[in-house]
Every structure is written in C-alpha cells, then in structure tokens.
Amino acid sequence: MNKRVKRWAPIVALTAFLAGPSPAADTLAKDLTSTIALLGLPCGQVVSAKRLGENDYLATCSNKMRYRVFVNAQGRVVAQRQ
Amino acid sequence: MTGCVAPREPPKDAALPGGTVAVEPPPAAKRKQTAAVKPEVRQEQPPVSGSAGQGRTATEAPAARTEAPVPATEAPTHKATEATPKTEAPAARTDAPAPKIVSPPVKTAARAPAAPPPAAKVTRIESAAPAPVKPPALDLAALEKRLKETSAIGVFTKLTLKNQVDDLLNRFRAYYGGRAKTTLAELRQPYDLLILKVLALLQDGDPSLARAVANSREAMWGILADPAKFKAL
C-alpha cells in the first residue's frame, strides 16, 4: 500500500500541475486582464489571482507586475500597483 | 453645316506635311477605315495642327468638328480616352478629301447618343449599391440589457466599462452645460475609443452583440451629439 502511494503520488501531482487553472480561475484571470488593460496599465496577461476579499483581488501579470484590483467605496474599479 | 464646309480647306494644307494622302484607300473603303485607322492618324496630326500660317484657319475648323468625332472613337474603344478623340478628329479631316470627311461626322453624330448610356449605367449601378445599407433602429434598453447579461465580459470588466461610460457622459454634460471647453469633435474620439474597447471585448465571446453595438454606433453618437436627445436620456 505504501509503495503504491509512493508510485502514484508524483504522477497525480504532475497531472495536477500540468492540468492548468480551472475554468473559473481562467475566467477570473481574463476578467482581471481586460480590466487592467482597460485602465491603461501595463500587464500583458494575468497569470494568477489571489482573492483578498469581496471584489478584491491581487493579480500577478505575465510581466511580473502585481496589481490589487478592487471596487472602491464610490463603486469604481481600481487597480493599484503593488 | 460649318463642320461640312471646313474640311474641304484643310486637305490641301494637310496633304503636304502628312504625306498620308497617297496611302488613303478609295472613297468607299475609306469611310470604313476612318474609324479604325484613327489611332494611327494621331501621330500624323500634331504636325498638321502645328503647321504655321494657315494653321489658324485649319485649327478653327477642327475645333468645331471635334465635338462630333468624339463619340465615334468612344464607341469602338468603350470610353477608352476622352481626350484623344479631339486630336483624332482633325487628323481624319486632313487625310481625307473633302467629300469623304463630310460623311464621318454624320456617322459619329448618329453614334453619339449610343456612347453616353454605358457611362450612365455605371453610375446607376454604383449609386444603387450603397442604397440598401440602412442604419438599424436603435434600442438602447435592449442593448444595455444584452451587455449586462452577456457572459463574454467579466464582472470587473463590465464595471470598469460602466465607469468609463459614466465618465464620458459626464464630459458630455459638462460640454452642454458650458463647463467644458472641449468641442463635440474632441468628444468623438473618446467615444470611438470606448466603442472599440467594447467591440474588442465582445467580438470573440459574443459576436452578435458586437455586431449590434457596431451597427448602432452612429445612432448612439446621434443621441450624444444632439443636446435635446441627450437631455432626454
């Protein structure tokens, strides 16, 4: 049993790694990418996003830049460079 | 009538420089050839018109005739060159003896009405093509609803777009309120930019909505550019 786990663990980990982001994460990344682009900020593509709160995300771009994208009290979408 | 009398004088003058008189076929054959030979005659003509002294009387006569021969050249060549026929006309006169020349103008006069119709047809076809394009009726409410419900744009993006639309509307309000020094032409640029952004976002995920937005682009601008319609928004 122990040997089987040791055999399959790397395969499962590799598959999960190569599978890429989930559809929801992909949709969020696209949304943040277009948002940052609409705001005229350099980014390329958002490669990962971390949820900080409701309507509040930390986006990491393909150009290594990171933005905090959130909706402020006035209802405006803001992207703050981190 | 003036065109008939004039040709008789030039042949004498033209026969000397052109030297083409010897080549001319008999009267009956020449009538047929005059139209076809004209291209060759072009080169001969310049010296004739350029001839000194008597050239004045000769050139005056061609001027009157040139109007008639024009269609004759257009008919065979299908409006190839409108300018060249003028030069061809005098050449035909110079080469041909007086009695022969009289007949070609008559033929050309008969052909003249036939040539113009093709040009008129072309213009009709061109004007008919753009006519069917009609701007569709603008339904802003439906368009707004579709934009809100489309899945091609994410929530953050929709909110960002809405903010930018509101910003633009505020600029229009400032313009109509006299608070901004911008002109309507200057406001057209951000409007176009915003529309392009929307189209770029929609074109892959929701092509039909992108088309609807693109088609109502001018209608929306019509509302924005009209103070009365803008107030009614």
Structure, described:
The complex is a heterodimer of chains A (82) and B (233). Chain A has 82 residues and is of the alpha+beta class. Chain A has two helices and four strands, in the order H-H-E-E-E-E. Chain A has one domain (23-81). Chain A has a four-stranded antiparallel beta sheet, covered by helices on one side. In chain A, a hairpin with a 2-residue loop joins strand 1 (46-53) and strand 2 (56-61). Chain B has 233 residues and is mainly α. Chain B has two domains: 2-128, no CATH class; 140-232, no CATH class. Chain B is built from 14 helices and no strands. Chain B has helices at residues 2-5, 10-18, 27-50, 55-65, 69-77, 84-95, 98-111, 116-128, 140-149, 155-176, 184-202, 207-215, 217-225, 227-232. Chain B starts with a helix and ends with a helix. The interface between A and B is medium-sized, with 15 and 12 residues.
Order of helices and strands of chain A: HHEEEE
- How far apart are the first and last residues' alpha carbons of chain A, in Å? 47 Å
The largest sheet of chain B is: none
Helix count of chain B? 14
Oligomer: heterodimer
Q: Which class of secondary structure composition applies to the elements of chain B?
A: mainly alpha
Count of all domains of chain A: 1
Number of domains of chain B: 2
Shape of chain A: elongated
- The total of beta strands of chain A comes to 4
Tell me about the largest β-sheet of chain A. 4 strands, antiparallel
What is the mean pLDDT of chain A? 87
- The rounded Rg of chain B comes to 34 Å
Strand content of chain A: 25-35%
What is Rg of chain A? Answer: 17 Å
Q: What is the overall pLDDT average of chain B?
A: 65
Return residue spans of chain A where pLDDT drops below 50 for at least 5 consecutive residues: none
Globally, the shape of chain B reads globular
